[in-house]
Design goal:
This protein has about 425 residues and is of the alpha/beta class. The protein contains 16 helices and 13 strands. It folds into two domains: about 130 residues, Rossmann fold, CATH 3.40.50; about 170 residues, Pyruvate-ferredoxin Oxidoreductase, domain 3. Strands 1-9-10-8-11-12-13 form a seven-stranded mixed beta sheet, covered by helices on one side. A six-stranded mixed beta sheet has the order 2-4-3-5-6-7, with helices on both faces. The two termini are about 45 Å apart.
Length: about 425
């Protein structure tokens, strides 16, 4: 291909996630690169060694023709991309296509999307198809140029309704970009029998959990689904939002989920980055971490979401039901923040405080104490403030609390984990 490319992803959700991934050697990549073509491409670029003048002025007599003359280059891009996807698949055992289908072979209700929401949808599809539901997903890999032929090929013959999800909003338009592309593609292919609806999600890094995807499939089941909708919010102004119900945990069964409430600048986020890297580097487990904080950063609430387990982790959304929750700032207990409610029955709740048992019980509100009792939550306390002061860490309690996490999580022997923590500190 001889056209410029932009690779894009879901901004903060992807760029700031720590994930254990597989990488390949540059020597393998080199085999796939046509260096003669690269040299020719560079030769055509502007260069002071052999100067040329291009496009300094064009009038209406030729500009239009020049713009149309590039059509063949763009028309050729899908086949070129598909060719190289095939080479990657042969080397890595992957299955990259211009449009990847995932789900039941006889799916009637299908979502079309691109980006990290596809991983959320796959979890939901695995859950629903195990119960006999006919649902699926089309993942858009090459957005531009949009190949009508390849898109239509990816749609199951049994499909009756499509829900197209866009992570953008264009006020005043009759639909968002991907939605309009899908409608136009179906029209061009003569596929008028498929009902298409469009939804928005995830604006401003709004979390999109499995409950949102369940809501989309529930909407598709209706005889008259909303033509345009939103998920992940409660729209009490224009009433476009879909009703979301509590959803089952769709993550892999072996996955351990943890949540840490900290204060911006207290070291909680940094300590958890080290923790997940220690787990990823020194065990066979898959690992994922994501960090939630507001624009104030220092002085604001931070929430660290950690997952690790024996199976690949494809859960790009907040931890909602955790095996382990830690409150690193005792003021959150006094303010009554709903933290323990995120702990699974039988899970662990760790509180950093200087209170004894009676004082802690007095500080906790009735709702928190009731949840702990009803769900058999294991409650632990640690006085990281005094411990940090005693060992010369000042107000930096993060290392003490990191040690407490490894002691309770038991993902690594405590002494071994502390050794790795020391190595990180020395670096």
């Amino acid at each position: 291909g001889r056209v410029p490319f932009i690779n894009f992803f879901d901004g903060f959700r992807t760029s700031h996630e720590i994930q254990k991934i597989e990488v390949w050697d540059y020597e393998d990549l080199k085999e796939m690169c046509d260096m003669d073509a690269v040299a020719a491409f560079r030769h055509r670029a502007l260069n002071p060694e052999h100067p040329v003048m291009r496009g300094s002025h064009e009038n209406d007599d030729i500009f239009f023709q020049h713009r149309e003359a590039c059509n063949k280059y763009y028309d050729a891009v899908p086949s070129v991309v598909e060719k190289y996807m095939g080479k990657v698949n042969a080397k890595l055992g992957t299955n990259y296509q211009l449009f990847n289908y995932y789900g039941a072979e006889d799916a009637e209700h299908v979502i079309v999307a691109m980006g990290s929401i596809c991983d959320v949808a796959e979890e939901v599809i695995d859950y629903l198809t195990a119960k006999g539901e006919k649902v699926g997903l089309i993942k858009v890999r090459l957005y531009r140029p949009f190949s009508v032929e390849k898109f239509v090929e990816a749609i199951p013959a049994s499909c009756k309704k499509l829900a197209v999800l866009d992570r953008t909003k264009e006020p005043g338009s009759i639909g968002e970009p991907l939605f309009l592309d899908v409608v136009a593609a179906l029209n061009a292919a003569g596929k008028d029998g498929i009902k298409v609806i469009g939804g928005r999600y995830g604006l401003g890094s709004k979390d999109t959990p499995p409950s949102s995807v369940f809501a989309v499939y529930d909407e598709l089941k209706k005889d008259a689904p909303k033509a345009h909708f939103t998920i992940g919010i409660n729209d009490d102004v224009t009433y476009l939002s879909l009703e979301e119900k509590p959803a089952p945990n769709t993550a892999a069964e072996s996955t351990i989920e943890c949540k840490f409430w900290g204060l911006g600048g207290d070291g909680t986020v940094g300590a958890n980055k080290d923790s997940i890297k220690i787990i990823g580097d020194h065990t066979d487990k898959y690992a994922q971490a994501y960090f939630q904080y507001d624009s104030k950063k220092t002085g604001g609430i931070t929430i660290s979401h950690l997952r690790f387990g024996d199976e690949p982790i494809k859960s790009p959304y907040y931890v909602n039901k955790a095996d382990f929750v830690a409150c690193h700032n005792p003021s959150y207990i006094e303010k009554g923040y709903k933290m323990v409610q995120d702990v699974k029955p039988g899970g662990v709740f760790l509180v950093n405080c200087q209170w004894d048992a009676a004082e802690l019980a007095e500080k906790m509100n009735a709702e928190t104490k009731q949840y702990i009792a009803k769900n058999n939550i294991q409650l632990y306390t640690v006085d990281a403030i005094d411990i940090a002061a005693e060992i010369g860490l000042g107000k930096r309690t993060n290392t003490v609390l990191q040690s407490a996490f490894f002691a309770l999580a038991k993902v690594l022997p405590v002494d071994e984990a502390i050794g790795y923590m020391k190595e990180k500190a020395q670096k």
